[in-house]
Amino acid sequence: MSLMHEMGERALRLGVPFSVHLDLTYRCNEQCVHCYLDHDDHGEMTTAEIKHLLKEMADSGVFILTLSGGEIFLRKDFFEILEYARDLTFCIKLKTNAVLIREAQAARLRDLGVQSIQVSIYSHRPEVHDAITKVPGSLKRSLKAIRFLKSQGLRVVMANVLMTENMHDYRGTQALANEIGAEYTMDPTVTPMMDGGRTVLELNVGESDLRNVFRDENLIGNVDEFCAPPRAANEDDLNSLPCSAGHTSCYVSPYGEFYPCVQFPLSCGNVREQRFIDIWRHSERLKEVRSIRLRDLSSCSKCAHGGSCTRCPGLAFMEGNMRGPSTQDCEKSFARTGIPSLNLLSKKQEQDKDKDKDQDSPPRLVQIQLVPAITGRRLAEMGGGAVSAIAS
Ligand code: SF4
Ligand code: SF4
Fold this sequence. Notes:
Elements: H1 3-14, E1 19-23, H2 47-60, E2 64-68, H3 78-87, E3 91-96, H4 103-112, E4 116-120, H5 126-133, H6 138-151, E5 156-161, H7 170-180, E6 183-187, H8 207-213, H9 217-220, H10 223-226, H11 235-238, E7 249-252, E8 257-259, E9 269-270, H12 276-282, H13 284-291, H14 313-319, H15 327-337, H16 342-357, H17 376-383, H18 386-391
Parallel strand pairs: 1-2, 1-7, 2-3, 3-4, 4-5, 5-6
Antiparallel strand pairs: 7-8, 8-9
Helix pairs in contact: 2-3, 8-15
Bound molecules: iron/sulfur cluster (2 copies).
């Protein structure tokens, strides 16, 4: 077990907020097609408010601090905040598009000793990356910055959100990361808008493409393990926590709103009105999130994937029920294993009904196709009535 993991376990036992993601601004110098944020400034916390919050976080035992946005370098006080945070001895991770990082900023980040810098890169091809960010020349500038950061000996992670626009470029992007000496991480999840809008989900990679991605060993490593048949939840799984959100980690927005996670927009309070630690300890909503175990999830606890699914409670919440399934995770489980969850099948039936009603209806949310290698027998073994629904 790594030291970080051990510290996380200890924090969980002690009820300490081990890791906080703080967005300093929602303003951005890129306008990415898949972005879930409203970029207007609706009253960001001031420098003094952020410093006050950081002190409260340090006093509460926070160890890992992720500073993100929007674009963090758009805050004129960014280095003042960063210096203050380092004085409080947080382990600091940054997320940025790096467009505004030059040699001088890279050197300053090195001097301040940040743990890692994650830079969003969508493709190795400028025409694809720049079309996603809607900023001509942005790939060139981000890559130049990554080279500055690497030349300072900093740890850089190239983060590649995979969507329909850049679906065929992930290998080239990964090769580029290798060439530069950056780490590479890929995420096929497009997040719904913070205001609940879901049209952006149309950018999600389709099921058959996702299936191919999940079988690329250069990306996945052990494909047999990753794409192993689903496992239903056992007794230990049923008593397990869904994830770290609200247990050892949380998220604070530029306006001071406190949520269990950046991908779980259930407001639990505001640090402008209450002390950080009081929200952490006493928020009724946070207590409710903490009370949930897999056994409390009526669909997922009985699902064939219950013990192996990566279900995100935040995505489930945005879909309407934090105790319900997350269809995006059902889709991933299906792409990995070829076995559809009952939730996915019922969505498919709903879509088919809608399709019958209106032949000109918009594209379907879930595109289920039968995996050639998966036979009716195997489907029947996994979950009964699946076959006729999926094969229709
Ligand atoms: S699973 Fe979802 S809610 Fe939980 S930590 Fe991950 S992104 Fe956040
Ligand atoms: S596949 Fe869907 S229904 Fe099954 S456990 Fe995952 S999120 Fe829940």
